[in-house]
Amino acid sequence: MPQKGRTEEKKITLELVQHELEPIYDRDSKVLILGTMPSPKSREKGFYYSHPQNRLWRVLSELMGEIQPVTPEDKKSFLQRHHIAMWDVLRACRIKGADDSSISSAEPNDINLILSAADIKAVFTTGKKATDLYQKLCLPQTGIPSVYLPSTSPANCRNCTVETLKEDYRVILDYVK
Predict the structure, then answer these.
(1) pLDDT band at 8, cuts 50/70/90?
(2) What gap in Å lies between CA 21 and CA 167, rounded to an integer?
(3) Which runs of E-coded beta strand occur in the chain?
(4) Does residue 164 belong to any structural domain of this protein?
(5) What is the total count of domains within the chain?
(6) How far apart are alpha carbons 130 and 111 in whole angstroms?
(7) Is the pLDDT of residue 172 over 60?
(8) CB 111 within 8 A of CB 90
(9) Whether the predicted pLDDT of 7 surpasses 50
């Protein structure tokens, strides 16, 4: 029985998640966008940034002057048309839902798989956790520093408007246009 005046600790259940999505790239890719790990919704839908309130696809499509892609096939075609590779920093981790701050037991993807096959000019990491994990786990192998971009996650809505995100993500255009 808990002592009076003590608060009960909430038990946090961390699920072991293995990355199941293939990296998107081809030999013409110029930039690489890396998140941390696909969210439960993205894993369910089978494609990156698939939560309906995630703003990545809106931001990228507005920057490129295109209609927002909807299907995984449209998104893949969009990325290839604009020379954008996409993957995640991690191949496995323990995580609670989509909460990047809960990540533990992080195991990196082999980013050199893409870097050896494409002429990547810049690596962009979406969100602070992706940036931190890339710097710790991937940078020693790749030797290419990443450029931080704010998260487009719905959890970051109050901190970043779509207009702010577009301004921050505009740097990608320097490499793909």
Answers:
(1) very low
(2) 28
(3) 15-18, 31-35, 84-88, 90-96, 99-108, 122-126, 146-149
(4) yes
(5) 1
(6) 13
(7) yes
(8) no
(9) no
User: Domain for residue 77, yes or no?
Assistant: yes
Q: Can you tell me whether residue 60 is helix, strand or coil?
A: helix
Question: What's the rounded mean pLDDT across residues 126-151?
Answer: 96
Q: Cα(161)–Cα(158) distance, rounded to whole angstroms?
A: 7
Q: Is residue 2 a part of any domain in this protein?
A: no
Structural domain of 82? 15-176
The tokens for 27 are 């030999």
Cross-strand pairs, 33: 86, 124
- Residue holding tokens 């609670």? 96
Over residues 74-78, mean pLDDT = 98
CATH number of 36's domain: 3.40.470.10
The per-residue pLDDT of the chain, averaged, comes to 91
Side chain identity at 18, as an amino acid letter?
Q
Which pLDDT score is estimated for 9?
Answer: 47
Quick one: pLDDT at residue 13? 77
Q: What is the strand order of the sheet 122-126 is part of?
A: 84-88, 31-35, 122-126, 146-149
Of 120, 136, 132, whose CA–CA distance to 172 is shortest? 120
Give how far the C-alpha of residue 39 lies from the chain's centroid of Cα atoms, to the nearest Å. 9
The model's pLDDT over 140-152, given as tens digits with 9 standing for 90+, comes to 999 999 999 999 9
